[in-house]
Amino acid sequence: MRILVVEDEEVIADVIATKLRALRYEVDVSLDGEDGLYNALSNIYDLIILDIMLPKVNGLEILKEIKENDISAKVIMLTAKSELEDKLKGFEIGADDYVTKPFHIEELIARVNVQLRNTKNHKVKDVLEYSDLSLNIRTSILTCVSTNESINIPYREFLLLEYFMNNKEQIIAKEQIYDKVWGIDTDYESNNLEAYLSFLRKKIKIIGSKVSIKAVRNLGYKMEE
Questions:
Q1: Fewer CB in 10 Å around end: N or C, the chain?
Q2: Would 100 be classed as within a structural domain?
């Protein structure tokens, strides 16, 4: 899952991002409101951690834009203020949760996990399943249930496979894959994606699955039986 951290205090942003990455979340960081709004509106994030006091565009304005554009990400607000009025304003606009600075990083992580468990389209599960494939989220082990063969999936291939299994039988454009798996600021080359897809296809074939990831000409890729 991908998380956006919009926080102008670089030390705090780095602490949050480091902790989340250690838990195998993909994390992007924006250090001002303008960049945060641009990234948030890309709609590639499962959750956004959003500070209220930001340069250029404040967090409440970003939250309003997120809701007006039907962005599906959960939003946890951060602020140095503790006044009830600020919290009520955030909830009124559509924030899902609120954390007041200073905070313990463990509390923020717990709130992140709760919100992601409540996400309608991306519930946190131990296992993702499609056809005869079963992917264990905790161990990165991919199993073909029909052959009972398993294989370990390396980190980047795991993110790629997870994205396909969450969007099975849908055509996914190359740009969507890069934004979700590598991040929106990545300077990518098309052969990078082809290489990772090749690795992933070989692993799926090794364990004897009938699932394939096919290229759809001029459109993207699709996971199907």
A1: C
A2: yes
Please, are residues 50 and 62 in contact by the beta-carbon 8 Å criterion?
Answer: yes
Of residues 178, 183, 184, the one with CA closest to residue 197: 178
Q: How many structural domains is the chain composed of?
A: 2
For the entire predicted model, the pTM comes to 0.59
> Looking at 65, 84, 117, which one is the last position of a domain?
117
Q: What is the CATH number of the domain that holds 136?
A: 1.10.10.10
Burial class (CB in 10 A: 0-12, 13-18, 19+), 201: middle
Residue 73 has a CB neighbour count (10 Å cut-off) of 21
Do residues 138 and 90 both lie within one domain? Answer: no
User: Do 8 and 88 belong to one domain?
Assistant: yes
The single-letter DSSP state of residue 99 is E
**Dihedral, CA atoms, 43, 3, 175, 213, nearest 10 degrees?**
-110
Q: Which of 75, 93, 117 is the last residue of a domain?
A: 117
Q: How far is CA 216 from CA 136, 147, 191, 205, in A?
A: 27, 28, 16, 20
Query: Domain check: are 63 and 112 in the same one?
Result: yes
Q: Under a CB-based contact definition with an 8 Å cutoff, are residues 22 and 50 in contact? A: no
pLDDT in tens, 185-199: 556 565 688 899 999
pLDDT digits (tens, 9 = 90+) for 59-118: 999 999 999 998 889 999 988 766 667 677 778 888 889 888 888 899 999 999 888 886
